[in-house]
Design goal:
Distance between the termini: 63 Å
Strand content: 25-35%
Number of domains: 1
Helix content: 10-25%
CATH architecture: Roll
Shape: extended
Oligomer: single chain
Number of helices: 2
Structural class: mainly beta
Strand order of the largest sheet: 4-3-2-1-5
Mean pLDDT: 83
CATH topology: SH3 type barrels
Protein name: DUF2187 domain-containing protein
């Protein structure tokens, strides 16, 4: 891919020559001159330990990125840790 084709927030397919042995998908978080910071979203189960060691982030050169039409649905996807907060009704707790 070329730098102009990479957009922040896009899901891309990538490969790493050293850290991960299999292709993976990631969300572009930051764009540098020749590479992009990816938050790893989908990966091969054999690379789980390496992904954990990398804190689910990796910088990849543009030449190892490829556009993805639809993100993989995999058992090994990182969670986005959504937290839901709800208000407790004070009147209900005071009636006890």
């Amino acid at each position: 891919m070329k730098k102009n084709d990479v957009k922040i927030g896009a899901i891309v397919e990538a490969r790493s020559q050293e850290e991960l042995k299999h292709p993976f998908q990631g969300k572009v978080e930051k764009i540098y001159e020749n590479s992009a910071l990816l938050s790893i979203t989908s990966f091969d189960p054999k690379d789980a330990a390496s992904v954990s060691d990398l804190n689910n982030k990796m910088v990849i050169n543009f030449k190892y990125l490829k556009a993805v039409k639809s993100p993989k649905k995999s058992a090994n996807t990182t969670s986005n840790n959504d937290v839901k907060i709800s208000k407790i009704d004070d009147d209900a707790s005071n009636k006890k």
